[in-house]
């Protein structure tokens, strides 16, 4: 097997191609279609995705919902500003968090948010320097968070989001993500209805997106990269539908790398999808043999990221990087609020 290096997945990206705001019409994004076997490309508008889906295929969507997980507050003793990003709920009121600046927030530090509506105590430091914080408040935590929290936009988006619903998919249902499954942002309710009316089965799975998906790969040997685990759930209905579609010769279209990672984590070696829930730290890179997925709808990802490695596993590194270079030449919009790609 090839010993892949981080630098094998590098490409030049002009900063002005990083989309700072979503389009007014979700389905008006551009769509680059890549044939994973030949490397041939086509250019379309996202709503044209309908013409690539056939009756009897399945479209798999991640119905996780982003929580307003970014909290701005201060240390109770010094008044120094702190920023807390909620990553994962460990217990009812205990969260694993990313704290900035972290050095001054050791065990015992008390934090205050929203003039005391919410307070927190740092309990301990865990892996990667994350902090466990126990929160105190009156009422219901989710309501307090909705009042005080901000959407945790990625650091490359510097514009303030005017409408927080634009960082949610139209089918978001189960709260728990620290980031949006951004490939799904292109779908409208109208487009999903047209897809369903065409005879395509729409399947929902859940994977709560953590920041581990977006952490930069620091090791040059990618096998030394540590993937963080994320919670996923596949219902009996979802598993049965996917298995029936596969058995009947239909294709499985995953919307986003999170849906892909969910199916590939929950399938057995024969490709049969199993219902259940758990945590996955699956790392997909070239050489991986896909068990369930046939086609992937995804955004354009960061150079040297685990997500570029995943799409390279599906279509081949050279074909993916060539398609990315073409997208740069054609001035496609990149990352979370950017344009889309269909690999099939």
Protein model, in words:
- This protein is of the alpha/beta class and 344 residues long.
- The protein folds into two domains: 6-66 and 163-343, QueA-like (3-Layer(aba) Sandwich); 70-148, Thrombin, subunit H (Beta Barrel), CATH 2.40.10.240.
- Helices cover 18% and strands 27% of the residues.
- The protein has six helices and 17 strands.
- It has helices at residues 141-148, 189-197, 236-247, 256-266, 306-315, 317-329; strands at 30-34, 41-45, 58-62, 64-66, 70-75, 81-89, 94-100, 110-113, 118-125, 131-137, 174-177, 201-207, 230-234, 252-255, 276-280, 295-299, 340-343.
- The strands form three sheets. A nine-stranded mixed sheet has the order 2-1-17-16-14-3-12-13-15. A six-stranded antiparallel barrel has the order 5-6-7-10-9-8.
- Helix 5 crosses helix 6 (317-329).
- The longest helix has 13 residues, at 317-329.
- The protein is globular.
- 41% of the residues are buried.
In short:
With 344 residues, this protein is an alpha/beta fold. The chain is built from 6 helices and 17 strands. It folds into 2 domains: 6-66 and 163-343, QueA-like, CATH 3.40.1780; 70-148, Thrombin, subunit H.
- CATH topology type of the largest domain: QueA-like
Rg from alpha-carbon coordinates = 20 Å
SSE-based structural type: alpha/beta
Domains (count):
2
Specify the number of helices: 6
| The CATH homology group name of the largest domain | QueA-like
């Amino acid at each position: 097997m090839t010993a892949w290096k981080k630098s094998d997945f590098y490409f030049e990206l002009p900063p002005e191609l990083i989309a700072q705001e979503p389009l007014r019409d979700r389905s008006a994004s551009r769509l680059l279609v890549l044939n994973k076997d030949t490397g041939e490309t086509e250019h379309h508008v996202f709503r044209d995705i309908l013409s690539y889906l056939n009756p009897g295929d399945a479209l798999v969507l991640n119905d996780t919902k982003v929580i307003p997980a970014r909290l701005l507050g201060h240390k109770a003793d010094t008044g120094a500003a702190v920023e807390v990003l909620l990553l994962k709920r460990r217990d009812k009121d205990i969260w694993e968090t990313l704290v900035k600046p972290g050095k001054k927030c050791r065990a015992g530090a008390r934090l205050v948010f929203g003039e005391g509506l919410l307070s927190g105590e740092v309990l301990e430091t865990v892996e990667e320097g994350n902090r466990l914080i126990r929160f105190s408040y009156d009422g219901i935590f989710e309501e307090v968070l909705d009042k005080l929290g901000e959407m945790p936009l990625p650091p490359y988006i510097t514009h303030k989001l005017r409408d927080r619903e634009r960082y949610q998919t139209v089918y978001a249902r189960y709260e728990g993500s620290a980031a949006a499954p951004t490939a799904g942002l292109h779908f409208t309710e109208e487009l999903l209805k047209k897809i369903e009316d065409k005879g395509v089965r729409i399947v929902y799975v859940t994977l709560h997106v953590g920041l581990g998906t977006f952490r930069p790969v620091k090791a040059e040997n990618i096998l030394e990269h540590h993937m963080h685990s994320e919670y996923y759930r596949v219902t009996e209905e979802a598993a049965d539908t996917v298995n029936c579609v596969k058995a009947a010769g239909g294709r499985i279209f995953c919307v986003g790398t999170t849906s892909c990672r969910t199916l590939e984590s929950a399938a057995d070696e024969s490709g049969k999808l199993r219902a259940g829930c758990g945590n996955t730290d699956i790392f997909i890179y070239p050489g991986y043999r896909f068990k369930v997925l046939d086609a992937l709808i995804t955004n354009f990802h960061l150079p040297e990221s685990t997500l570029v490695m995943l799409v390279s596993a599906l279509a081949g590194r050279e074909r993916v990087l060539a398609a990315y270079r073409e997208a740069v030449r054609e001035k496609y919009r990149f990352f979370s609020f950017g344009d889309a790609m269909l690999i099939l």
